[in-house]
Design goal:
The chain is mostly beta strands. The protein has no helices and 15 strands.
């Protein structure tokens, strides 16, 4: 970058050119190239442009053989856990699966504490029924064929909408009436 200044020295005006060396803060990466020449830089975007498709929170994905994991997300602004580890931890926690079943999101009500309390995600062979203290949401079904010895094949069907970024749950109970949980 060139910077020009006018200076008055002993009644005469002098024009001074200053060359300023500024470091380039643009660095090359996937999908684009940076070329520096002289005091300028050019940015070339590869064609076609690199596409980014964000993962959908709280969807179930295949991990290594016999395991799945859940994309990080929140339930009423709380991060769920798998086996006591938050799902946004690194390395991400996995859920072992050896038979067809369901990946369940469980929320609990603990007296004197805000609802929900400590959302948990786990594998279950069946979908549990809601109780007055626990609500359950089926995140995905998991279909398993074969065995670890013969070669395990797992497919996952997610039930969450791809347009919802987080899960909200509500709980309603009046006196001796049944408890209702609703999910959005």
């Amino acid at each position: 970058m060139c910077h020009s200044e006018l200076h008055k020295v002993a009644g005469t005006i002098k024009f001074i050119n200053l060359q300023v060396n500024m470091p380039n803060s643009i660095q090359p990466g996937d999908g684009y190239t940076v070329n520096n020449f002289g005091g300028a830089a050019s940015l070339s975007i590869d064609s076609p442009a690199v596409q980014f498709y964000p993962d959908i929170p709280l969807t179930v994905q295949l991990a290594e053989t016999g395991k799945v994991y859940v994309i990080p997300g929140s339930v009423n602004q709380l991060i769920p856990t798998v086996g006591g580890t938050y799902i946004d931890a690194i390395p991400r926690p996995t859920i072992s699966v050896s038979a067809s079943g369901y990946i369940i999101l469980e929320v609990s009500r603990v007296a004197g504490q805000p609802f929900p309390n400590s959302p948990v995600i786990y594998y279950s062979a069946t979908i549990p029924s809601d109780t007055s203290s626990k609500g359950y949401f089926n995140l995905a079904s998991v279909t398993v064929t074969g065995t670890l010895a013969t070669g395990l094949s797992i497919s996952v069907t997610n039930y969450r909408s791809p347009y919802i970024g987080a899960v909200s749950v509500g709980r309603q109970k009046f006196g001796g009436s049944a408890t209702y949980h609703w999910w959005a």
